[in-house]
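Moderator note: this is an archived Q&A kept for reference. The question asked for a predicted structure of one protein chain; the sequence and the answer are reproduced below.
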Amino acid sequence: MDVAENDPEADWEPYYLTAEYQEKDNVYASFRDNKYVVVRKGYEHPEIVMKIISVLFDYSRFEDEENADEINSYFALNVDPTARPLVINVDYNEAIYNVTKDIRRVMSGKQKASNLSALEKSYYDACMKYLSGKNVTVEDWAAYKSRISAVGVLVDGHYSSVRRTYLVDSDGEIPNMLASLEKNAFIQMIMGEQPMDYFDTFVEEWYDQGGRELTEKIREENS
């Protein structure tokens, strides 16, 4: 946005690199979870992190009708995450991809704007303002370029993300028993039902109930 603001003639266009042009050495996979919120040991209310995330990404979008427009419009401004209460996005899978698909359906007349979610409507309004060419801000430009231009290329290319498989013998899944143990332990620690040092107990139980064998299998498959 700084470039667009300083040089209105500057432009950015994304291009889809199809399989026929890809070379193995030029393609890489990255982890989806690339940001973390860390709470110091002994903090009195670690559960506040999850409550803030729930307010930002669930309550404010789908339940709080009084303030939803203001909050979703704020998100549509492409505000730097450092200006939010937590520097992290915790959204549903393929959220940006689906938002763009719905906005483009409205723009093509296949769907009514009234059917858009509050967040989608905020991005839609910014994109339409950009296309109108009247009183366009760099935020409008960024909304259009990031959603319609960039993600639109992925939609047109029928893009699907590459999923890395670690556990060949178990179809890439952690056994239900271990997954349930992990989920319950983390929830209890986050909500303060167990102290943070309960993690050491959880690790021992996880290994004893099959985690040790699972870990060795992953190491063998990736060695």
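Archived answer notes: The chain is about 50% helix and 0% strand.
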